[in-house]
Design brief:
Blueprint lengths: L1 H20 L4 E2 L2 E2 L9 E8 L4 H8 L5 E5 L10 E8 L2 H7 L6 E2 L2 E2 L1 E4 L19 E5 L7 H8 L5 E5 L15 E6 L2 H8 L5 E2 L2 E2 L1 E4 L4 H26 L1 E5 L7 H8 L5 E5 L2 E2 L2 E2 L2 E6 L2 H8 L5 E2 L2 E2 L1 E4 L6
Antiparallel strand pairs: 1-2, 3-5, 3-8, 4-5, 6-7, 9-11, 9-14, 10-11, 12-13, 15-19, 15-22, 16-19, 17-18, 20-21
Length: about 325
């Protein structure tokens, strides 16, 4: 909106005035943060391809003055998003911009972190953060043995997972593609592994870098997340109007229970829990509406196959 744009411009102007007024700190003849841009450079992923540099600059310059904005060029970029590297004039600008991590940008979710892989200055990502415990190892050759490689890389720390992709084109599936993706259990182990970069392994020079998710990885993760959300939604819907039934003979079938409860309304699902393959004599009946569930609750105490049924709301029950 116009109001939002004006607000962003005002914040940007205030930031620039503050930076102009602030005296730069000098260390060995260099402004703090010079050299390798320590603490001032951000890695930003999830940027829609259609978004221009100007728009990216406008979005992030509200946090501080940007000295450099680089969008790596590749001949073939798959997916709908790309990455960028932003270098701020001040460390505090980069720190403030980390707030954009996880935010929406033109319909895509941004991933923002310092270019050294940490979440904030001097604070590396947690050991549970899988992105930061993964390394990409190249230069292995097509005859690399997984067990031998695992033993070699385990010297850096305990490995949680090691993937050594096989060649899809080769007739002999034992031929690998010459690289591996390794996930360690700790950040420290991954950092130690990256020190192997340039070392010789089986007569070949290794290239060991931080692993950055590819577009296909992001697509796979997104698909898995959607499938999980859909399953959770289906489960919640199934349990929304559910009753707990007990008191019937263990030999009773699902069909007989369905026949008994169908007059109440549409039935979505009937579950008869078992223990070691034997029915436990209880059931969960899920209805399509609250009205149907209410009618089913009226059957509490009524006879079913010469036994009085117990019917109660299943909201406080678990299978």
């Amino acid at each position: 909106t116009i109001a939002a744009a004006m607000s962003t411009k005002k914040r940007k102007a205030k930031v620039e005035l503050a930076e102009e007024a602030e005296e730069p700190k000098i260390q060995d003849g260099k402004e703090e943060g010079d050299g390798e841009c320590l603490g001032r450079k951000l890695y930003v992923a999830g940027i829609p391809k259609a978004v221009s540099k100007d728009v990216i600059n406008e979005r992030f310059s509200q946090y501080g003055r940007i000295e450099d904005l680089v969008i790596p060029e590749t001949k073939k970029v798959k997916g709908k998003t790309r990455i960028a590297f932003l270098t701020f004039k001040k460390v505090k600008g980069a720190q403030a911009a980390l707030a954009e991590d996880g935010s929406d940008f033109e319909g895509a979710m941004l991933k923002v972190q310092l270019a050294d892989g940490s979440r904030s200055k001097g604070t590396p990502a947690t050991e549970q953060d899988e992105d930061m415990t993964r390394v990409f190892v190249a230069g292995l050759g097509d005859s690399c043995d997984k067990d031998t490689l695992t033993e070699f890389l385990s010297k850096c720390g305990e490995i949680a997972e090691l993937s050594l992709p096989e060649s899809k084109a080769a007739k002999n599936k034992s031929i690998v593609r010459g690289f591996a993706i390794v996930r360690y259990k700790t950040n420290q182990a991954a950092k130690k592994a990256k020190k192997l970069d340039g070392k010789i392994y089986n007569g070949k020079t290794l290239s060991v870098k931080s692993y950055i998710k590819s577009a296909s990885d992001e697509k796979k993760a997104s698909k898995q997340a959607k499938q999980k959300a859909a399953k959770e939604a289906a489960d919640a819907k199934r349990k929304q109007f559910r009753v707990f039934v007990s008191g019937f003979a263990k030999t009773s079938s699902e069909a007989s229970l369905r026949e008994h409860f169908e007059p109440c309304g549409e039935i979505r699902h009937i579950s008869i829990p078992k223990k070691e393959g034997i029915p436990r004599g209880i059931a969960f009946v899920s209805f399509a509406s609250k009205v149907a569930m209410t009618e089913a609750l009226r059957l509490d105490g009524q006879e079913f196959r010469e036994r009085p049924l117990k019917v109660a709301s299943a909201t406080a029950k678990s299978e």
